[in-house]
Amino acid sequence: MHDSDKTARVERLTQLSDRLHTEFCDQFKGTAEEVLFESTQRGGKMFGYTRNYIKVEKPFDKEQIGKIVKVLL
């Protein structure tokens, strides 16, 4: 297999993965989900994940770090 074929396949798979991830996350828009905020402040924001591993960011609140918080997606 030529390198150009490998590169094209990787690109197509990456695009498919990105599209499927976006479609999955879109299913949860407008729902309230529990998020565990583990990350520290970066640029005034904190980051966490839902039970389905959807990444969530919101303004930093030190009281919510390390806690599970209900968030509207």
H/E element string?
HEEEE
How much of the sequence is in beta strands?
25-35%
Largest sheet: 4 strands, antiparallel
Structural class: alpha+beta
| Overall number of structural domains | 2
The helix tally amounts to: 1
* Total beta-strand segments: 4
What is the terminal separation in angstroms? 43 Å
Shape: elongated
Mean pLDDT: 94
Strand order of the largest sheet: 3-2-1-4
Rg value: 17 Å
Low-confidence stretches: none
Helix content: 25-40%
Account of the 3D structure:
- By secondary structure, this protein is α+β, with helices and mostly antiparallel strands.
- The protein folds into two domains: 1-29; 31-73.
- It has one helix and four strands; from the N terminus they run H-E-E-E-E.
- The chain has one helix at 3-26, and strands spanning 32-37, 45-50, 55-59, 68-72.
- It has a four-stranded antiparallel beta sheet with strand order 3-2-1-4, with no helix packed on it.
- The longest helix is centred in the N-terminal third of the chain and has 24 residues, at 3-26.
- The protein is elongated.
- The chain starts with a helix and ends with a strand.
- The mean pLDDT is 94.
- This is TRAM domain-containing protein.
- Residues 28-72 form the TRAM domain.
- It holds the Pfam family TRAM.
